## 1
Amino acid sequence: MLHLILMLFQVSTVHILSPMASSGSNQQSTAAYKPYRHLKTLTAHQRAVSCVRFSNDGTLLASASLDKTLIIWSASTLSILHRLVGHSDGVSDLAWSSDSHYICSASDDRSLRIWDARSPFDCLKILKGHSDFVFCVNFNPQSNLIVSGSFDETIRIWEVKTGKCLRVIRAHSMPVTSVHFNRDGSLIVSGSHDGSCKIWDAKEGTCLKTLIDDKDPAVSFTKFSPNGKFILVATLDSMLKLWNYSTGKFLKIYQGHTNRVYCITSTFSVTSGKYIVSGSEDKCVYLWDLQSKAMIQKLEGHSDTVISVTCHPAENKIASAGLDGDRTIRIWVQDP
C-alpha cells in the first residue's frame, strides 16, 4: 500500500536556511555548512518510487517501486546494473545485508524476497506468511535474520539461510509502519499506525518497553541511531523526535517539513557533521543539524512527495525518491 496511511477513508533549486540556533558555536558550525546540490535525476521506474537505499559498502544504490520492481544502480556511475522482477504487486520497502551482497524486498503481494545483489541477480528465497501487505523490512547486523512488519499488525522474524519464519509477534493493533534492529541485533524497534512505538527483545520476541503509546498521531517511521543509544521517531503531525532509549524521554524535536499522510522515511547523516535528513509532502528534502535542531537546508526539485531518503555511508551524497507524480530518484552531493 506504499507508505500511505489508511485512515479508514524540472528546475531544481537549493535553499540554505539561516541558522535558528542562538549560541555562537551553533551559528559557527551552521555557517561552515557546505550545501548539497542536485547532481542527477534517475528516471527508470514506471510508478512511484517507494524506497531508496545505498548499500553498506557504498558501491550500490537500490530502489523499490509500485511498478513491482527493484533496480540496482551503480552508486558511482548512477547507471542501471539490473532490474529485479518477480513481485506480483508494488514493493514498499527494501533492506541491504551488512555485506552488501543481498537485498530483501517487502511487497503488497504479502511476501518478501531475498535477492542476490550480484550477477546473476537471482531471487534466492521467497518468504511467505504475512496475511496482508508487507510494509517494512530490515536485516539484523549479523544478517542471519530479517524482521518484517505488515498491515496484518504482526512482526515476523525470519531466518535468512532457510527462509523459515522463526517468530510471529502480535505487535500492534493497526498496520506496522517500520521495524529496525539496533547495532548489536539484540533489540527491534517498531512503529505503527496505532500511535505506538515499541522496543522488542529480538531473541525472545517480548516487549521490553513502550516508548510512545498515543492513539494519535500515528507513528509513521522509526529507527535506531547508528550508536544504538537513540531512536528517531516520525509522527503524522509533521514532527521528528529523537528519543533516549534508556530513559524513555525525547531530547530533540525537528520540524518545518510536512508529514501528515504518508510514512516518510528519515535518516542520520554522519559523513560530514551530524544531520537529520527527511523527505516531505511539500516535495522537498529537509536537513537539520542534529544537535542544534536548526533546519539548515531544503532541497527542491521533486514534483511529488519525497517518500524516502538515504545517505551514502562514506561520501556526502543523498538519494531521494518521489511518489507517483514524480517517479524519479534525485542524487544530491556536497562539493569538496
## 2
Amino acid sequence: MALSRVCWARTALWGSGAAPGPYVSRRLQLVRCGLARGGLRSSKLHLSPKADVKSLLSYVVTKTKVINGKYHRFLSRHFPRFYVLYTAFMKGFQMLWADAKKARRIKANMWKHNIKFHQLSYREMEHLRQFRRDITKCLFLGVISVPPFANYLVFLLMYLFPRQLLIHHFWTPKQQIDFLDIYHALRKQSHPEILCYLEKMIPLISDVGLRWHMTELCTKIQRGTHPAIHDILALRECFTNHPLGMNQLHAFQMKALSRAMLLTPYLPSLLLRLRLKSHTTVIHQLDKALVKLGIAQLTAQEVKSACYLRGLNSTHVAEERCRTWLGEWLQISCSLKEAELSLLLHNVVLLSTNYIGTRR
C-alpha cells in the first residue's frame, strides 16, 4: 500500500512537470522512513537465540568433560583404591538405571498387549526376574536409610559388607568372581543334606524298580560320578507324589533346598513351599523360552549366568562345557510336567555336584 502511494505521488509529479511541494516531500520522507524501519524490524524478528544457546551448551558440556577427566586422573593417581570403588559405583548406577528403563518398557509392552510373563522371550523373562531380585535388595537399603542420619551409617555398611548389601552392578570385577565363589560354597554346604534325605526316602518308595534306580543314583553321586540324563529322568515318578513330591517335602528338606537355590531358609514351612514352587516354575518357564531361542544364540556371559542360576559354579568352567551342561539341563527340564517340578528342584544338586571342573 505504501509503495503504491509513493508511485502514485511520483507519477502525479512527473506527469504535471512541476516540482513537488513541501507537503508532498514530507509525505515521501515519512513513507521512506517507515519502509526502512519496517525492513529493520522484520530482519530482527528472523534472528533466533537458538544458535547461541546451542553453542553455550556445547561449551558447558566440553568444559564439564575436561574437568571430569582431570578429576578422574587425580583420583586414580592419589587414591587408587578409592578410585576403583568410585568407578564401580558410577558404572553401577548407570547400569541399574538402564535396567530400570528396560524393565519399564517390557512391563508397558505386557500391559499394552496383555502378555503374560511366560509368553515373553527368554531375554525379557530373565531381565525381569533379575531386576526384581535387584530392586528388592535396593528397597531394603532404602528402608533402613529412612531414619534421620541413618544414610551415613548405610554408606559405611555398604563399604564394609558389599556382598550382603550391594547388588552385582556395584561389585568390582574381582568382587564378582570372589562373591560368586562364596555364594556357591554356601549353597554347596546343603548338598550332603539333600542327598542324605533322598537316601532316607528310598524305603518309602513303593516300586521296587524305582527304589533300585534311586539307590544307584545316590551311590553314583556319592562316589563322584556325574549322572546321565536317563538316570535322573527314570525317577520322575518318585517326585510326583509321595514321598518326594513338592507337597510332601519335609521342612528341613525345604530349608536345605532353599539354601541350594540361594533363597532364605528362615521362613515358615508354608512360605518356603510356596517360594520354592514359584522359583522352580519360573526356571521351568525360562527353560522353555531358552529352548525356543537356542543355546547357540546366547553370549558367553549369558551362558555362564544361566548355568549359575541352575546350580553350576560356572565362573571356573570353560564356556563350551557350560553350554554342554546347560544342554543336559534343558533336556531334563523340558521332559518334565508341572507336577514333576520337584525333580527339577532337586536337579540343582543331582546334575551339578560332580560335573567336570566344579569340584573345588
## 3
Amino acid sequence: MAVGGEAVTAHPHVDPAVRRLVSFKYSVSPRDPAGHATRRLHTHFTFMELDGAGIVVERVPWALPGYAFVHDFALTRAWYVVFENPVSVDYHAYMLGLAPAAASIRWDVGRPTVVHLIPRPGAPPGARPRRFELPPSFVFHHANAYEQGEHVIIDSVHYDSLPGVGTPALGKKQVDPQVSYSARLRRATLNLRTGVAARKLLHPGYLEFPSVNETCFGRAHEFVFAETADFEGSKSGLIKLDMASLEAETWFPGRHQFVGEPQFVPRPDAGAEDDGWLLACVFESESLTSRFVILDAHRIGAGPIAVALLPHPLPHGLHGSCSDTAYMPTHGAGSATLSSNAVPFTPPSAPLLGGETSLQGTG
C-alpha cells in the first residue's frame, strides 16, 4: 500500500459508507509534532484512507506526547478513535538487549485510560481533537464505534490492567498472570457536549476478538460476535451478544478444543444484520489437529453447518500463526524453483469430514 517504513496497525477497517479502507501507521521518536528534537518520546500517527484502487486519498497526521501502545482503533462518520493505555516503555532494557519488546512495557498505576477522538476528513467544520478519561484498563481490540446524537459510543474489550502476552514476557514484566482472564466487553460513552465519559459492562464473561457485521462498521450495530472461554472446563467457544437485550448465545466445540478469532460473513442481499455465517478455526489440543468451521450466524448455538479438516494443525494464537517453513502445493508449480525453506506437498484428497472432496453443509 506504499505507506512507508513505519509500523502499520494490524486492524485496518473498511468504512462502508464511503467505501474506503481506513488504517494508520505510527512511529515513536524523541521529536515533537514540528519535528524538533526533545527529551520526551512522542507517538506519531498518520491516518490513511484508501480508495478501491488502493490509492491513499486522505492522510491525517496526529501526534501524542509520550509512548502510546496502540494495537487497534475504531472509527465513526466523523472521528478516528484511539485508546491510550496507561503504560510506559523501558526502552533502555530493550535497546540493550536485556528484554524483548513485549517485556519492556510497564503498567502505570493510577493513570487513567484516555480516549482520543481525531477528526476525519468531512468532520463538522472547526472540529478539533478531543480527549476523554476512563477508569484504568488495557484495550487491545474494539468491536465497533458510532455516533448517537451528542455521544460517541465505543464497544471494546477491556482488561483490568496490562495482560501478559507470551511466556518470556510474563516474568520480565512482573504482571499478574490472572489479568489475562479479565477480558470483558464494555461500552464507553463519550458526551461531546460535556466532555464526560462513562463506561459500563456489557457481558459478565470472558470475551475477546470481537467482530461485527462489517456493513455496520462506524454505525450502530445489533450484534457482537467473539471468542469466549470456559476456563474451568479447559475449552473455548464462540459467543453472539444481542446489544439490545444483552442476551448471549454460545457454542463450545468441547473440552480441550480451542476456537480462534471468528469472522462474520454477510449473506448476499441479507435482510437482517445477523443473516450470514460465522467462520473460525478450531484447534484440538489432544489430537493436535485443526478444522475450519462455518456456523449459521442466526443460531450459533446449533453448531457448525459445515466442517473442513485441515491437512496440518494451526496452533491457537493471536490473529494467526507464523512458520519459518513454507508449504507449497505441488500442482501447478511448473518449473518454478522453490525457496530453501519451502516444502512441497500434495493436498489430501479427502480433507473434509465424511470423506467428501468438496465442502458440504446444510447452509
